[in-house]
Task: structure prediction
Amino acid sequence: MDFGLSQEHEMVRRMVRDFAAKEVYPGIKEADRNQEMDPQVLPRMGELGILGICIPVRYGGQGMDYLSLGLVCEELEAVDTTLRVVMSVHTGLASMTLLQWGSEDQKRRFLTPLAKGELIGCGAFSEPGAGSDFSHISAAGKRKGDSYVLNGEKMWISLATKADLAMVTVRTNPEIEKASAGLTTFVVELDRPGITRGDIHGKLGVRAGSTGWISFQDVEVPLENRVGEEGEGFKVTMSAFDSGRYTVAAGATGLIRAALEASLAYARERNAFGRPISDHQLIRQKLATMRREYEIARLLYLQAGWLKNAGERNTLETSFAKHFATDASFRAASEAIQIHGAYGFSDEYDVERYMRNARGAMIYEGSNEIQTLIQAEYALKERQDKPLRMEMPAYDAEIWQAG
Ligand SMILES: Cc1cc2nc3c(=O)[nH]c(=O)nc-3n(C[C@H](O)[C@H](O)[C@H](O)COP(=O)(O)OP(=O)(O)OC[C@H]3O[C@@H](n4cnc5c(N)ncnc54)[C@H](O)[C@@H]3O)c2cc1C
Result:
């Protein structure tokens, strides 16, 4: 494996770091307190090409590789998790799923404007009654001539009220014995008649972002919007998670780094017992753990990104990366609060926001209990990667950068 970063990678990293530091950081506390997303964030991410970073140029993207996507997510979440969430759902769950499973017509109609930031996408899979047990979702899709009629409710959907379209998986065959074989995915424009949506307030974290619900009442969706074949929805959704989880892993790595940097700065300037607290061994231990876990988290997401570039399946490696980085980011943020003492307990410093933001990622995109089960199944050889009808394409610079 070669994790060597190119000049282009470094340029993207710098550009995103600058954007987040100069344009988002100054207003982030207020947005977090007000539980409102800054309306400038999505258009600016679109303008800068961030939203289509790893999508081929011919579909409106920047033609960079999957490692670039990880690096972008690390930089974004080092400032605020809500920025990375945009990448997880817009790029990971929506655009990359269309890149893998979409028809040429869907790539032209949906992927291209998504990559350009002209449309915003999200992934609407979870429901009030089913999250981890995804194969038992109850939203339904009934075939009616050349269209499907969708009914049901999707819950905890990031960007629910900001997105123009959603990848939506519903049950189209309630009869079939194997529940997961009865699901189908659609790309649904969110201005279709019968759709209502709203935001959820009072969340512990990601308060400067949007998390909401989407309700479907007799929503007619044309056949051309079906992503993959009827009955392939479970596979399509699991592919979406392979992309989304990667962004979560890389982002959480950025949060570890932010917690470490804040802790290093504070520990050097705060004195106790006549010396900077960074001189006390127990504080050093915390700093060393954060530093070590940052390194492990970084290597794990780079490994997953490298496999993606090579076109190799990476469900297990992405699961390792997501699981480790999200647990470690919560530990790092919590220890950062400890290092800041009472000041860490107030929003005068960023570390309490880091901890609140880190907590959600242990639950979403497959909870860390579900990641443990996935890893155990691979270890026990109860699970193997079977070839998919549509694989995520390997990165090829020539193809990706061709207009
Ligand atoms: C901030 C936020 C953003 C989100 N964004 C999106 C989004 O954009 N799109 C989307 O579709 N969903 C989204 N979700 C939903 C998220 O994916 C689900 O919350 C998650 O899959 C867990 O499902 P659940 O909440 O229904 O918990 P449940 O599935 O009810 O699980 C409850 C608890 O039981 C554990 N558990 C469940 N089954 C097992 C088992 N077999 N063994 C051991 N433990 C188990 C879980 O790990 C969890 O700890 C978001 C959630 C949050 C909090």
